[in-house]
Amino acid sequence: MSNFRDGGVDNRETCIIWVCDNCMFHHANGECGDCYGEDGHVREPWVLLSSDHAHGNTTMGMLAEEHEWECDGFGCDCEINTFSMSSCDGCGSRLCGQRHAFTLWGSK
């Protein structure tokens, strides 16, 4: 799979993972609403991935070729599963709810 990145072609393998709101907020902001709650996190965000994958080799969203065929990639909802009973691929939380698509990049 080839992707343009840093001005060149990136031939690393990729896969899509689906993460919960808390993992998504931690990736984007470094914190989430549960960080300051009385009970804290049910599961530590991104605990299932190594720190390299959780921060350096993971990007929010899907690659263009991963979107549904009728989708133009802009303003679509391919990257959000509004209700999922599957566990989060980032922390393993089994709480039902939204899941957000992230691209996990293999090593160079």
What report would you give on this structure?
- There is one protein chain.
- With 108 residues, the chain is of the alpha+beta class.
- It has one domain.
- It is 14% helix and 27% strand.
- The chain is built from two helices and six strands.
- The strands form two sheets. Strands 3, 4, 5 and 6 form a four-stranded antiparallel β-sheet that branches. Strands 1-2 form a two-stranded antiparallel ribbon.
- Strand 1 and strand 2 form a beta hairpin.
- It is globular.
- It starts with a strand and ends with a strand.
- The N terminus is likely disordered.
Order of helices and strands: EEEHHEEE
How many structurally independent domains?
1
| Strand portion | 25-35%
Structural class: alpha+beta
Shape: globular
Round the mean pLDDT to the nearest integer and report it: 80
N- to C-terminal distance: 13 Å
The value of Rg in angstroms is 15 Å
